[in-house]
Target: ABC transporter ATP-binding protein
Amino acid sequence: MTGAQPAIRLTGLTKSFGSVTAVDEVDLDIAPGEFFSMLGPSGSGKTTVLRLIAGFEQPTSGTISLLGRDVTDRAPFDRDVNTVFQDYALFPHMSVLDNVAYGLRVRGVAKRARQEQARAALDTVRLGGFADRKPSQLSGGQRQRVALARATVVQPKVLLLDEPLGALDLKLREQMQVELKELQRNLGITFIFVTHDQQEALTLSDRIAVFNDGRIVQLGTPAEIYERPASSFVAAFVGTSNIFDDSTSQALLGRGGVHSVRPEKVSVATENLPLVADRTAAGVLAEVIYVGSSTQLIVDLDAGTRVVALEQNDAHRVASKGRGARVTVGWNDSDIVTLTAPALT
Ligand SMILES: Nc1ncnc2c1ncn2[C@@H]1O[C@H](COP(=O)(O)OP(=O)(O)OP(=O)(O)O)[C@@H](O)[C@H]1O
Ligand SMILES: [Mg+2]
Model:
């Protein structure tokens, strides 16, 4: 019966700290088993939403339901959620195994049973051989995995993760992203994942809520958020966008309003390389930035605006021209996103 209920339902959720409204009338349903991310700039209310769901904060108004049960007034231990914080918060004096078994001990699980379950949880994060070590004898990524095992061993319905990969270097971070996704899929737990790294949110999530000033400004799949941003804020915050204001839109698109186009949708050509595109504009190559698999081309258009384009590095065609070269940029109408419709005249 509970299968039809959302894992989490927030209704009119609001949290004020004095004059600061950290969370402002948030309505949200998260499905069981969903990998859900909250993405937004610093101070946009992401951690506060997590703390409200976990029960570490009381809302100023609004309600929180877990699988159809209103838990707004329940204590943290009386909610079927568990939290992984950015700093892991492992007990330094306990072994890895005892750290993982801790939540089971608190719940009164007998010693042998909890050690077995803790070992199984360590296996799921590929740390089976590390049970007897102390946290100080582990790498950052290994500690992170211990924190995950500790949070999942009690089999919560919902796992809240607040920037759990924030302290890791890029390589480890990418590796952990894959492991997190696998863990979530295998355990079937609902993940609510907070990050301000848009790439991470796009890679991992089933759906993303983009936060700004305590509100959800867009809710959708990664593809929807990336390809159809609903506002200039989302277009600029998630990935790199070229945003055309009203007068630039008039000049380049022949209509007013505010529009955006992603750099990978902008092609660039020189005089002797024809461009197949619905619309073109001429300009000067201002910067050529090598970024590994691709090159970023920054073009100052004669129309007075600057656009960023991405060229894959199998071609090396325009980048080889170097700064100052005359170029033509182009894009297709279907790749233009309307952020604000033209004003009615
Ligand atoms: N205990 C508190 N007392 C007063 N203000 C608070 C408190 N906790 C959070 N705030 C304020 O609420 C707003 C939202 O904070 P929150 O920590 O939820 O942001 P965040 O989106 O998690 O940011 P970050 O990405 O920096 O972690 C901020 O303006 C913050 O200063
Ligand atoms: Mg935060």
Q: What stands out?
A: The pocket of adenosine-5'-triphosphate (ligand 1) is lined by residues 17, 20, 22, 40, 42-48, 196 (CB under 6 Å). Residues 184 and 191 are 7 Å apart (CA to CA).
